[in-house]
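Hi V.,

You were right to ask for the full record rather than a summary. Here it is.
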Amino acid sequence: MPATQILNQLHYKHWADQRTLAAIDQIDAQAFPAELAVARQQLNHLVRVEEVFRARLMEMPEPHTSSNSDNVPELEELGRRLSDANDWLQAYAESLSPAKLGEKIYFRFLDGQSGSMSREEILFHLVNHGTYHRGAIGHALDMAGGLRPADTYTVFIHATEPERRGHKQGEGMGV
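Predicted structure:
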């Protein structure tokens, strides 16, 4: 993947995360406490994993020894941490040369197993990991009254580049 593609994916992740946070904020906590708890737990896991991988990318000590916690922070704190992580990831990816993007990092997963990934693979993992957990949050949003936002990559592309909607099939393909 060229660096421009991973940057685009990170912009997508930030956009989708913001839509998800806004939807979670609409959950009626009195009527749907279990659904809100599931959404917060999923966000907590998502944020902690991103913070661990950020430390790995920076070759610093990891801030967490597990991917979740007994005490789940409030939604406001989780949203702030997720936004901070997204801002950092985008700036970090923009700063990498192609050689640095392909550089392998060796680490121990939180379960103690050893692993290695390139910086680009880690960035892609975080995009993909976010998609997986937004899906779980989406189920909680459905159960809390159908608040799930459309957050697919195709929706992102056409929301951020509306000019893509104006073409007919086959147009511009030399046909």
